[in-house]
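Please predict the structure of the following assembly.
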Amino acid sequence: MLALLLQAAQAPQAAATQIGEPNRVAMAFFFLFIATTLGITYWAARRTRTTEHFYAAGRTISARQNGFALAGDYMSAASFLGIAGLVSTSGFDGLIYSTGWLVGWPVVLFLIAEPLRNLGRYTFADVVATRLQQTPVRLAAALGTLATVTFYLIAQMVGAGGLIKLMFGIRYEVAIAIVGVAMIAYVLFGGMIATTWVQIVKAVLLLGGAAILAVMVLAQFGMNPVRLFAAAAEKFGDGVLAPGKLVSKPLDTISLGLALMFGTAGLPHILMRFYTVPDAVAARKSVFWATGLIGAFYLMTFVLGFGAMVLVGPDVIKGVEPGGNMAAPLLAEHLGGTAFLGFIAAVAFATILAVVAGLTLSGAAALSHDLWVGVVRKGHATQQEQLRVARLATVLLGIVAVLLGITFKGQNVAFMVGLAFAIAASANFPALVLSMFWRRCSTSGAVASMVTGTVSTLLLIYLSPTVQVDILKHAVAWFPLKNPALVTIPLSFAVGVLVSLATPERQEQEGYQYVERRMHLGAVVE
Amino acid sequence: MITPDSGLQALAATRWKVALTLTIIMVIVYFGFVSLIAFDKPLLATRITPGLTLGILLGVLVIVSSWLLTWVYVRWANTKYDPELHRLRK
């Protein structure tokens, strides 16, 4: 490390930017963050004695804390670096993501949060399985969960490796290993308590960092965003303020919108957070907080993106990294010098760590709570055994994530976030809604819906232009849409309904009365 | 414990109606915006003042309406749904 720093100090300063050079401030902030979060983990580990603590933080997180943690769990590097980059290089088109990634939250509030909190314990499979047969439902739900988590993790890991390499000048594999070790440490020792606080710290850092950056940009334009947009239009043409070339195919745009909107309501690591609050009222309030925070953040991405476009320039941004991902860090360097660049780089790192920790925990819950305890042990396992399996699953998932991150090095994995949202929207969301709100939903119907959602999404992504043309370099793709949600969400709902109607289950329908009561009144009235 | 299930079912039906209505409004707002992006780009390029196009304004309004709709729901739940649940629990 020291050698690296010395080397950098002696190296001639050719480039105008310090990005890619080991940055002392970034390193300092980075070690401060790691030290703080490991301190939190140590504190949390002493409080993690039961599965209730490990998966659900003892259900003691307040609504406001959970609102921040939800924001920290949800806003990935793609939100921060990706959208700012997209807006700075393509203008308006990037805003499709800013809005799309928010509009799922009201849906989570209206349809999912409170019933989920009242019906389940640790995973969304608990809810679907409330009155249906445990084994098939948990198997199918685990399939959907693990598919979503795996693709999301690959996208985060590969992104993390690339970004950390670019910002800190350390090797890709080393960066991936650091992320893997830190996330395993948080989840393994501190479970949901540590994960929650890492996410809260990250949310505060990310929102604070983005706000400082946005204010510094606006200060140059009389604190008026419209003047900033006008400057962008003056410099790069009116086109940057209107839809452009990124959205050339109408159905692609709509399909992506569907995946973003309904995928949020089916992301296992987000759903799991609702079990950390004491009751349904707190679950409701926490989504209100999360929607406020995430919306404010995405409004700031408008300013950051156009700010980077005007103050740094698209050519410089693409010159540093062709995807445009360095727009926000470059903007920070332009406005606040190397020290501020270091701070923003560390924030980006914290952002990634908080998301992968949440993903790992929800994957571990699917493996241990749904598959091991629910399917293998039929619900009969001691606390100690459950915790042991959950921790084993955490380590296993962490190692798999690191290996996948290294395997996919240099690959274009941006589509995998879209894929994860599409699977969540098609495999998890329809089964959740049908089992909670439709009396006639049967075991076979729910299972068929989850399996259809997962398999059809994977298949259609494989046949899409993203994989066939962009990655495999074939001339044409069999399936025209880049994101399959437009087909797979209706398909999954239709299969769920038709199979349920074809396989009526009297017992399960009678069980609906219990579901309905518990969904509203909570478990207290049992 | 005796729960007057007819009361609960009425409340469940009301909650479902409120949740579904608000969800549909959100879908219309967002997919209205997305459809304009997909099918009527020139309209969104309309300039309101220098620096502000209809597209940017509507994008901001989508975010603001997400806030408003969650606020409407939370208010309804706090003032109507919770007291009714409280009554049913007795």
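Chain B has a mean pLDDT of 90. The longest strand of chain B covers residues 47-49.
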